[in-house]
Design a protein that fits this description.
The protein is of the alpha+beta class and about 725 residues long. The chain has 25 helices and 21 strands.
């Protein structure tokens, strides 16, 4: 094993930055050139077909067969002109990854090979539904499932190894119509919030005809050399290091954050950004993150459905480009102990057809009343359904990250800044809004004046899981490897639900003797009072907040199996089924799938840990112990057994103690795993893995990491943290 480690280090020593050829001209010259978007469709389709297609997409109506056939023909011609030979329905099953099955454009007709791609192939295909997680919706012998074209997310060309494939974003449903993917519920939630938000907007502005949720997901990740990655079996199989003593230098000097990007990494970033831009992914930002070898990229805002597709595509693209640079991208939430983990900050807002960001404060009174309506309704939704938001980000990887003084805790709270907090308090308590920008400005209830609210009027709070950052809410608790569809579906749904309640409540309270603005403010005051316990402006990492949150009766569920319980409460079932986002069957299936995913990931980690400990660490420690024993014998032969031999003997005893502890703990962990495996119920089995199996991880790690400090560096079998994090 040490030979693998030193061979990897030798390979690393010979690495050179991979030269890349950047396109000539500005990014705008090649942006979205591999996307069959509006420009390509307008060029390829007749004016009448293009009009019918865009009208159907805007209204959400079904696209007729003739239009679909014309689109298919134009799409095939466009793709083949760019060198594509195959097409695929690109979908997002409940594995958390993407899926694709490639078919060639050509077929045999009357003994001749011809290129053909018809509406039937564009609109629908049939992958095997039984081979993907379904939570009991489909059994092994019920294999039929369907992918169906999502025209709201543009088709694109994906190049891999020189071959180009036309990828058509689709939903994936069972033969009986249940959603088996992440996209179908997302589209349902988008349609829901569009209707709810538009109805509220029209209370203020009749020109608003639709509202779209937007998203700008920041993506954190680690990058290490590919050879070093393959020299760590735990990284290969689990995405994280189960062992590894912290190096003397980690992130304590804060010298990596926003520092100069290493050359190899910079070349990798430039290449994946170019490829992303060709695919229409609007990456704008790149920088070093806090931990050594940790980085971040971020796009501009897009409509939620496209943003989710682009984030899934981006992760796949980054991994493929990294291979060409002999690098490995790590998306696990906590690949290394002792340094910051990685998240995926979801910046969410609502935008109207007129271009108005509903979460952006304005300069006119009416604009700010609209802003306050959507702002307060969002806070009320987060308050009422905080547990659902917690469940949406629950995973085995995120359990290692949340609350580790580097990421938000498992307590869901909202930070809005002192100015807005004071304004809401004033409105709630005195029916006046006080705003301080040098002079005090007051709004008395019923006066048709709303004070100006400045953008970025307060500091940011990076410890908050749900923070208002000037014109959007940033949900920071999402894990780096997760699909952002799950938390966004919850966010869309709970806010839509609150907006529906708000409109109903305003209509119930409104009468001819009161101005509508007064009724709106009265309802908002009720919401402010009802949701205030979710607001917290301080340090979410502090122990004092844990105590205060408990006093406020906010949930603090730190493990995934119990957090997932919130998915299937009566409140959650009623919400999703009433609003048509999930059926009860779909919700229960997702609960079971995520429990099984958690259990299997912990099971894999336990097996990897046991294998490394018994087959690699203990033999290495025993071999080094034997060296010390030989050393003691030699000292005695030379008559130098005191006091020199005492040091070696103490080391031998320490090593023996750690070896014994490791072997004992691994055996106990294996027995705990066997007991858990016998349990049929998915929830009970997941909880046993959480409480009993995973409870051994840190105890075993303690002894292994102690041995790493004692065994000769040249004998140690695993790549060390200083090598993984600092050698590029």
């Amino acid at each position: 094993m040490p030979s693998i480690r030193f061979s990897a280090l030798n390979q690393l020593g010979q690495r050179q930055p991979v030269e890349i050829k950047l396109p000539s001209g500005p990014i705008s010259a090649y942006f979205a050139t591999n996307v069959f978007g509006a420009d390509a469709m307008q060029t390829s389709l007749s004016a009448d077909t293009y009009k019918r297609l865009t009208q159907a997409m805007a209204s959400g109506e079904k696209i007729d067969y003739d239009t679909a056939d014309a689109v298919a023909t134009a799409m095939k011609r466009w793709a083949m002109d760019k060198g594509a030979t195959h097409f695929t329905h690109w979908f997002q099953p409940l594995t958390g990854a993407t899926a694709e099955k490639h078919d060639a454009f050509f077929e045999i007709s009357e003994g001749r090979a011809i290129e053909r791609f018809q509406a039937s192939a564009l609109v629908q295909q049939e992958p095997d539904a039984s081979s993907f997680p379904s939570g009991g919706i489909r059994t092994t012998f019920e294999a039929r499932g369907y992918t169906a074209w999502d025209p709201t997310s543009p088709a694109f060309l994906y190049e891999n190894g020189g071959a180009k494939t036309l990828c058509i974003p689709t939903v994936f449903v069972s033969y009986t119509g249940e959603a088996l993917d992440h996209k179908a519920p997302l589209l349902r939630s988008m349609e829901l919030i569009d209707k709810a938000a538009t109805a509220v907007c029209q209370m203020f502005d009749k020109d608003i005809s639709y509202v779209k949720p937007t998203l700008g997901p920041e993506q954190e990740y680690f990058v290490i050399d590919r050879a070093l990655f393959f020299a760590r079996p735990d990284l290969m199989l689990t995405g994280r290091t189960v062992f590894g003593h912290s190096p003397a230098k980690g992130q304590q000097l804060d010298d990596h954050y926003f520092g100069s990007i290493p050359q190899r990494i910079h070349h990798f970033m430039m290449e994946f950004e170019v490829e992303a831009h060709k695919l229409g992914i609007p990456i704008r930002t790149r920088h070093n993150e806090v931990a050594p070898s940790q980085y971040e990229c971020a796009p501009t805002f897009e409509e939620v459905n496209v943003a989710v597709d682009h984030n899934q595509l981006l992760m796949d693209l980054m991994e493929k480009v990294a291979e060409r640079h002999q690098l490995k991208v790590l998306f696990h939430e906590k690949p290394f102990a002792g340094v910051n983990g990685s998240g995926k900050h979801c910046n969410w807002s609502l935008v109207t057809n007129t271009g108005r960001n509903l979460l952006a404060p304005g300069r006119r009174p009416k604009e700010n009343l609209v802003f306050l309506t959507f702002f307060v309704c969002t806070l009320k939704a987060v308050h009422d359904y905080a547990d659902l938001l917690r469940a949406s980000v629950a995973s085995a990887g995120n359990d290692y990250r949340l609350g580790a003084n580097e990421a938000p805790p498992a307590i869901i709270s909202a930070f809005i800044g002192s100015q807005l907090s004071n304004m809401l308090d004033s409105l709630e308590e005195t029916a006046e809004m006080q705003f301080d920008k040098g002079d005090n400005v007051y709004l008395k209830l019923g006066i048709n004046k709303i004070p100006e609210i400045m953008l970025d009027n307060t500091d940011r709070n990076r410890t908050s899981p749900f923070a208002f950052t000037g014109n959007k809410f940033e949900f920071r608790a999402v894990g780096a490897s997760a699909t952002i569809s799950d938390p966004v579906v919850v966010l869309n749904t709970i806010v839509a639900n609150q907006l529906l309640d708000f409109k109903e409540e305003v209509e119930r309270q409104f009468n001819d003797n009161t101005k509508r603005e007064v009724t709106i403010i009265n309802v908002l005051r009720e919401y402010i009072e009802a949701s205030k316990k979710i607001r917290f402006e301080g340090n979410n990492y502090a122990e004092e907040w844990m105590k205060e949150a408990k006093r406020r009766k906010l949930s603090n569920v730190t493990d995934t199996p119990r957090a997932l319980d919130f998915m299937i409460t009566k409140q959650a079932r009623d919400l999703f089924s009433r609003l048509g986002v999930f059926t009860e069957r779909e919700l229960e299936a997702r609960h079971e799938i995520r429990l099984e995913a958690y259990q299997k990931k912990i099971q894999i980690e336990a097996r990897v840990m046991g294998d490394l400990a018994i087959n690699h660490i203990i033999p290495t420690a025993v071999a080094y112990q034997n060296k010390l024993i030989d050393n003691v014998r030699g000292l005695k032969e030379l008559g130098l057994d005191q006091p020199h031999a005492e040091v070696a003997i103490a080391g031998i005893k320490d090593i023996a103690g750690h070896i014994t502890s490791i072997r004992t703990l691994v055996e106990e962990m294996v027995e705990a795993r066997k007991r858990a495996n016998k349990v049929e119920d998915a929830r009970e089995r997941a909880i046993l893995y959480c409480d009993e199996v995973a409870s051994y991880f840190n105890r075993i790690r303690y002894h292994v990491d102690k041995l790493e400090q004692m065994v000769d560096d040249e004998d140690w079998p695993l790549m060390k943290y200083r090598e993984l994090l600092f050698m590029r």
